[in-house]
User: What shape does this take?
Amino acid sequence: METSPATLPAALRAWSEATPERIALRDADVALTYRELAADTDALARRLAHAGVTTGDRVALVAENRPEWVVAFLACLQLGAVVVPMNVRLGPAELGRQLEVAGPRLVLCSEACAELVGRAAPALPRRGLEPDAAAAIWREPAATGSIASPNASAPGLVSFTSGTTGRPKGAVIGQGALATSAAVYGRLLATTADTNTLVLVPLFHNTGFLDQLAHMLVVGGEVDLLRRFGVQAAIDALDRRPASYLIGVPSMFRLMMLDPRAGAAFGGCRILAYGGAPMPPAWVEELHSRWPQVRPYNIYGLTEFTSLSHALEPADAIARADTVGRPVEQVRQRIVGDEGADAAPGEPGEVWLAGPTRMLAYLDDPAATADVFRGPWLRTGDLGAADHDGFLTLHGRIAEVIVRGGEKIHASQVESELGALDSVAEAAVVGVPDEILHERVVAAVVQRPGRRFEPEQVRADLRARIADYAVPDRFLVVDELPRNANGKIDRAQVRAAFAEVPR
Assistant: This one.
């Protein structure tokens, strides 16, 4: 495609005309060509229109990774409706709070999620996603006549942030921002119509619907769906159909790297992107050593910025592994200190971003929107420092800074140093309350197979790398770290685990 599409439906239409028989979407043994995907999308858009969904209406999408999810997502966008991908791993109460804020005209859900939706929001109208479901949206008659092309400047999607306290915040993303961010991915990673990807993460997360699905739609590539991540399931899928492009959180790749069948997972990979958590330099070096054909990209972004804002490119992957790289095209950054002035190079502050993929607002929440908007800028809530060349080093969320006896400790730095040790597969560092020091530093660690974790030796190693006050006072060896539905460490659960263990 010579020019970037204005919207994702425009990209789908273009590829369905240019390469109609190219595979667009796979799920297990099912495959849809671009022609078939476009036809299914148009058919569902017409059924949604007949069901009363119109431009600007919100449609909640509650389902696991499956082809019908993709078709529904694109049909909503094509109709000019606002799609709201919902986290299917939430409990009924939390999902109910998000659905209350979303105020959808209709809920589309899979049979597997029907009970969850019924408990979360029994009064909302809902239809089944599968064609053979009892109340399938596919049984609705199709509206006739033409469907107008969606407006690139109009809202296209609401994505809820991962916070679980207070009123849920849904970032409203424009139709054009989805296509713009996807096109930036294509140019950054040099992906083409020959690129294929396996979606390891939930489609409701921006890594799924943007970094992979939207990205592949814009470049004309192929998307393969994994219903739910598991190391063996992922390796089985990659052994069956190797993927040239993978993206996920570092822990996913680390678990796959440690598996005896790791070669089947990464042997066909050419582009590997990671984000959402730090990737210890030692892991990057091991990846490069074992699979030198892989081009690694560290990706930084956030829901409110349509996923992508920074990238660390392969040439800098090892030498600058402590950073998330520099802003991608059209993105500007500021590092703002406590007094509201720009920090000097190397000095920490809050990361502010500006660019065309910034969210339009938080849904129906002008106060929360005003709190993070400063003119064209978005306050990210992330702490970081940028050097003279613009490389950004993150120090974690402002809320994740541990204050021990007046000293500020960045959990991500301690985690990175732990990850470089031979005995540690991965780690999560948090602060726990202390009557005297305010907080103490503790760490949950997963022991690397075949190695023995010795707390005192680890403390000695860390004292040679970081300040003595940043060395964890306590360690807890666990089989795996608790994670939320987006694959990020659930720090509240880590703190709770320490509270349950006698000192």
Observations:
- The chain has three domains: 8-141+150-174, 229-397, 405-500.
- The chain has a mean pLDDT of 92.
